Amino acid sequence: MITKEIQAQDSAHFIHPFTDHGDLATRGARVITKADGIYIWDSEGEKLFDAMSGLWCVNVGYGRKALAEAAYQQMMTLPFYNSFFQTTNVPAVKLATKLASLAPTVDGRSFEHVFYSSSGSESNDSNVRMVRRYWDLLGQPQRKVIISRHNAYHGSTMAGASLGGMSGMHAQGDLPIPNITHIEQPYFFENGKPGETADEFGLRAAGWLEAKILELGADKVAAFIAEPIQGAGGVIIPPVTYWPEIQRIVDKYGLLLISDEVICAFGRLGHWFAYEKFGYKPDLVTFAKAVTSGYIPLGGVMVGDRVAKVLIEKGGEFNHGYTYSGHPVACAVALANLEIMETEQLPQRVRGDIGAYFAKRYAELNDHPLVGMAETCGFVAGLVLVKNKHSKERFSEEDAVGMVCRRHCFTNGLIMRAVGDRMIIAPPLTLTHAEIDELMRLIRLALDLSLQELKAKGLL
Ligand code: PXG
User: pLDDT category, 108, cuts 50, 70, 90?
Assistant: First the structure.
């Protein structure tokens, strides 16, 4: 009864993100009502293993009282004040100090400053503003172009969607905006040549950046932006040779490097920040999502010394900012969240024993007839569904194989994302061995049921 009523109101009044509302109205949205640990429940009482952590957010798991208490205490003390007119607030300062201490220094390049927003999209808009201001202040205003990658996701604002490389998003709203261009992604399974090793492919894929810089003219290029691992694009994990070669190219031509870690930071890959894992040296690092484990919106940019020095020492007033930049309640929740991650040593868990167990169990999926390649990096994992694992023959788009598998996940109590023919997960970092076993049982069940259905449909 409640479900039908909420669904009717939902259809009548709520425009959802990335949703076909005609389709949604016919089936009715699933109403999620509560959550605890790694599980969510819907209004029909059904329990689901949330292997996507909400949407790459809930790294500490659901139901953490400490986060609710931090929000309550802060709301009772100072629920809001802006930080525009030479004022500040204690949680925003403490969080910036904490984040600066967590961001590792690489080759003498450190992160002492934070710019706050409320989301990943806004943070990437801020990146565009900061990059352009940086080059203007250095007397190189012609350095305007930001290079990104096809199938990247950097958000849904005008700049975020333009930086992103999603063709479906570009097709709506005349995007990308000028001075943003894209190179191909480092997807070995799809773009590796016969006989080429992953390491060779990684170097070749990084070379696309150099080719693009030379095509545009190095003096025109302002920055390169990339996710350490492409998340929404289907968990595309680059070969180990990729990032060092990107760093070499970025250094050679003097570009700024933006590491969009909205998904990859805060323990997801076993480190506070993912650039540490891959050993590169970004100038700007985008964060959001797990900084509060999604309990309240907060995003921002770690501003490296190279950029901060110019903006602060030469820049005067930077005409950019948001009402909620440094929101005291969001920052208080983030501090409590980071404290949980530190106390429970969540990055270390992912890097250590539990991460190794997750990787080992997930790799077992490679024996499944539908799986072309299953791989993990920390606590993100992806697999590609194939028609023939030996020839690597793929399904066609019309087969909608990801949707078939996702439906079997849903009906058996598992949230796993489908991106085209890829199935992806990013579970909470708190998973126990037993929960990993349960997760693998559910994934294998969905794969088996998908195999049966695809055979019955004559697609195999
Ligand atoms: N950068 C990255 C790397 C992201 O993953 C954003 C920026 C934008 O963040 P906001 O907070 O503005 O949404 C993201 C967001 C998916 C999916 O389908 C992924 C995201 C958002 C929505 C859907 O996997 N990531």
Answer: confident
